[in-house]
Amino acid sequence: MINETVITQEELRVWLRELTPLRIHINGPEDPERWIELDEPEDVHLEAGAGAVVRTSGRFRYEWKGLPVKGEIRQVTVRLSPTIVESDPAGKALAFQLDIEGGDLVNVPDKIDEGIVAIINKAITAHSTGLVWNFTETLDSRFDLGPNLQQLEALGTRVEDGEVQVTDHEIRFRLTLRLDVLRAS
């Protein structure tokens, strides 16, 4: 059985507007001194085979050589790339990786811009942001049947595969499920 979910570019725009403003703690919430905050997107578009490209502005706070650096982000480009990844235990997950591709930090030299962007990208993995859905864990299920169905014990679903495709107009997520019938012994 194949199940398919389609997110249009317009639906993605609405979703991202609802998610912002968004503060991302670089080292987790236990370190409130290092973060990047993204404003509502100015532009959202999809690039086939790659993901969503989001242009926005924001703020940041970081320590550089022991000194706190806080500033404005005039413009930043963030890529949101959906991929299928292996998850634990044996299964698959849909992950949305965030990558900052470029930014214009107000009153910060380009070399420091690049260094801050590299550190942030290393810290904001899909797993650290929680933008991962373990669909195998969610959808692998067993439904026990009642005693009135004597020859049957349970019905089940098992994820066999998942794939994600990005076009210039939509993100298409397709799952292949297997339906199982377990007979009473």
Unreliable spans:
none
Provide mean pLDDT, rounded: 87
What overall geometry do the principal axes of the alpha carbons give?
Answer: elongated
Q: Note the main sheet.
A: 7 strands, antiparallel
Q: Can you tell me the number of structural domains?
A: 2
Oligomer: single chain
Q: Percent helix among the residues?
A: 10-25%
Helix/strand-derived category reads alpha+beta
Assess the beta-strand content as a share of residues: over 45%
> What series of H and E elements makes up the topology?
EHEEEEEEHHEHEEE
N- to C-terminal separation? Answer: 26 Å
Discrete helix count: 4
Give the beta-strand count: 11
Tell me the Rg in angstroms.
21 Å
How would you characterize this protein structure?
With 185 residues, the chain is α+β, with helices and mostly antiparallel strands. The protein folds into two domains: 9-134, no CATH class; 137-183, no CATH class. The protein is built from four helices and eleven strands; from the N terminus they run E-H-E-E-E-E-E-E-H-H-E-H-E-E-E. It has helices spanning 9-19, 110-123, 126-129, 135-139; strands at 2-8, 22-25, 35-38, 43-47, 51-64, 67-87, 91-105, 132-133, 141-144, 152-166, 170-183. Strands 2, 3, 4, 5, 6, 7 and 8 form a seven-stranded antiparallel β-sheet that branches. It has a four-stranded antiparallel β-sheet with strand order 1-11-10-9. The two termini are 26 Å apart.
